Amino acid sequence: xxxxxxxxxxxxxxxxxxxxxxxxxxxxxxxxxxxxxxxxxxxxxxxxxxxxxxxxxxxxxxxxxxxxxxxxxxxxxxxxxxxxxxxxxxxxxxxxxxxxxxxxxxxxxxxxxxxxxxxxxxxxxxxxxxxxxxxxxxxxxxxxxxxxxxxxxxxxxxxxxxxxxxxxxxxxxxxxxxxxxxxxxxxxxxxxxxxxxxxxxxxxxxxxxxxxxxxxxxxxxxxxxxxxxxxxxxxxxxxxxxxxxxxxxxxxxxxxxxxxxxxxxxxxxxxxxxxxxxxxxxxxxxxxxxxxxxxxxxxxxxxxxxxxxxxxxxxxxxxxxxxxxxxxxxxxxxxxxxxxxxxxxxxxxxxxxxxxxxxxxxxx
Length: 364
What we know:
The chain is of the alpha/beta class. It has 13 helices and 13 strands.
């Protein structure tokens, strides 16, 4: 058994989301968003090289030597499955291991709003899950694919970097392809997928204009495209896509979004009231004719107000979702304040006065 499996097993057993290893520090575990060291000696450069080297294939060692970083998935019979990022930095080698649960969570387990199921009823268009790194986007997408796989007869093609959750074909055929292993890039994978009779295409990350444009083409030609972006709201997602396009293509991108963007699920992980775990809090955007007109007329800044009043369509702003969870005593009030956009309405719930803006009481 590779020696690093001991640290990975410890992190999984303690319910951690990530295990970090770096030179001149003991292994670190992230639990509920906070890092804490393992009771172990500081790792030396040679020890770290050995720990990581034991789990790398010759091809991965060559890629690390060439590119100074690699991303891959690692499965241990003892410790389970992990998404791994290994990189060289000032001071030596480092690595981050993201714990992948053994079972794909159901949407109900993630406590996502019913509107998410509604969005999955579309057979064509683009559906995005957004949020910063580590907010559970991959888990949400895996749960969505699992719903489709369980309930419909579809050809689902996923493009992932790396493959995290492993889907077994149920009612649907699920074909998972890994960037760098099975296809050269997301762009190349999308081009190939369009020739493979897909119903649904999952794009792990819309990371560059070429990938975004290929995903748009797929959505326009009768496929349901699922993807992620590192944005924190629906309005910012729309702006990011339009801004990523060349000047001559921005109008076309806005027209695409107005017609083919079905919805955006933007999520954050917020500490629960008991402090023992974190809960996904989501903003839900569902495209409507009124919002489509705002996109076409370059009034994306007005979309948040449309979401705020769109509860009848299943929409909610992040602040609305935070307040609802706070009123139900599901999340920590201080963490809710930290994640809120309009912090003033959350100030009365804060228990740590250091978080609040300081009032200058000096007498002139």
